[in-house]
Amino acid sequence: MTLLDKIKVDPRDKKLLFTFFAVGIALLVIAGVMALLMLLVRTPAISIGSPTFYYRTLTGHSIFMFIFWLGFVQTGLLITAGTVLIGRSLWSRRLGWTGFWFMVTGAVSAGVGILLGAETSYTVPVPLSAQYEGTPLIYLAFIMLSIGMGLIVINFIMTMVGAVEHRGSFSSWAAFLRDIPISSFAAIAGLFIAVPGLILALKVFIPAFLWSVGLLYTDPISIIYYANSYRLNWHVIFHIYHYMPALTLVGVAYILVELTADAKSIYPKQIAKALFLLYPFFVPPTFLYHLLVDPNIPQGIKSIGSTLSLLVGTPTILHMFIILGMLEARIRSAGHGFLTWMRHLPWGNPAFGSMAMGIVTLAAGGVLSYMLIQEQLAPVLHNTFAVPAYIHPMAAGGANLIYMGAIYYGVTILTGRQLWGLAIAKVQPYLMAGALLLMAIFGSLAGLAGVPRRIASITLAGDAPASWVPLMNLTLGVGGMLAVLAGALFILVIVMTALAGKRVSTVQEMIHGMAPAAMPTMVKHKTTPAALLTIGIFIVVIMALTVLGFMALNLVPMR
User: Fold this and answer.
1) What total of structural domains would you count in the chain?
2) pLDDT digits (tens, 9 = 90+) for 499-515
3) pTM > 0.90
4) 70 is in which domain, residue-wise?
5) What are the tens digits of pLDDT across the range 282-305?
6) Cα–Cα distance measured from residue 397 to residue 437, given in angstroms and rounded to the nearest whole number
7) What residues pair up with 503 in beta bridges, in sequence order?
8) 354-392 b/e with 16+ CB inside 10 Å = b?
9) DSSP secondary structure string for all residues of 271-304
10) CATH code (residue 83)
11) Measured between alpha carbons, how far is 272 from 185 in angstroms, rounded to an integer?
């Protein structure tokens, strides 16, 4: 029996799931429009619009893309992990809808705050944000989002508790955790990061909201004290929700590798599940690398933080080895040889293309991130374009592309329609990945050349180095525009599928063009050397780029 045969969606949960993903897609559209408007202002070859307009669209893009789009889609995936994957119904649909409306209220609040003039980015710093009229609504948006997501987390926990046959028996719990899918276990492990992050978010943003409306921290001394506390705690929250997508995308990849290639792991499932428990162990202590430019942090602590940061990608790298090993073992079991098996992967399946390109862009962003979390390089590159150059292949690539692969399946199953525009969907992930890799390469070179991170115009009234303009034209004018086009194609396919896709009655008909190819098992393959080879390449590239980074900074002094 394949995973598709096991998928059953309770009709009573289907509407909630569909609505979560539909609102998420709507927020993705808003964030994409904001990205396009930013590109029109900041690309030197175009440069249309005012700096004020740029900062407002930057705030909208960062909040709607990184906070709300990811928040909605990951919450929908959490519900899926607790219901669809284990054959359960949601514990309380009323609680689920309550959480949903809290999150929607947060999104609306953020939108109104931006329209009123909040140009704060998603950091909304204290006390600098006081000058913007819409600031209180941004803080309120984060509070509403945290409450809504917290209610969904409670619902998920109660759903999982209800799935245990004898809740007072340790052996029953052990059997339950052993037997549930890897992705459902990943969702449970993620709670050890998500729950403290939600609690901390309320602890930080409720006082910030009260301050912004004049009810708290009204004297200068208390404002200074709170501003320091806010900055530290905000980076802890940001760090946690920077890595929640990493954990989630890995959980989704385990589903996609089985759906697209019918690949099963040759390793015990307990190994993959244990690796998810490394995220709560490695992620929280490594938040210090976000503060390597903070003058209040002692140098010794910064060095420790930089060293710890080298561990943060360990579980994701090991998971990628298992996932690639699953693919290698499955295809080679059909009789294909070392390395040649990769030609026989389902590259024409848009869901597989999304997963594969998500892994590629995640690796590229990961390599670049290891340069930026080193104590010597971080202070030099922190406020340059090198930061968005690594964030975009990780978030817009690794997370978004893999989520898009899951949504290609989800939209067909939730609507009972075949995927519209299959030919477009096949091209979309490769176009997105190519665009993001262009942004990563030329954006990193721009960062090494000293291009600032967040200013509307990089020409500096003609005083900027000559290399800045062509690098940013390639980064934003080519890479950025192609990424927006790829996102628009994804939206087109999903919306048209929901509105005009061919209605069918069986799951096999729904996933037409995305079903795994039938491959006879010629031999049971038990080794995966090619998968291990990719990790070695990753490590070598990190070391090489780090050396090149130091060389580039010596050859091209920062201005």
Assistant:
1) 1
2) 999 999 888 888 888 88
3) yes
4) 3-555
5) 777 777 777 777 777 777 777 777
6) 9
7) 417
8) bbbbbbbbbbbbbbbbbbbbbbebbebbeebbbbbbbbb
9) HHHHHHTHHHHHTGGGGGGGGTT-TTS-HHHHHH
10) 1.20.210.10
11) 9
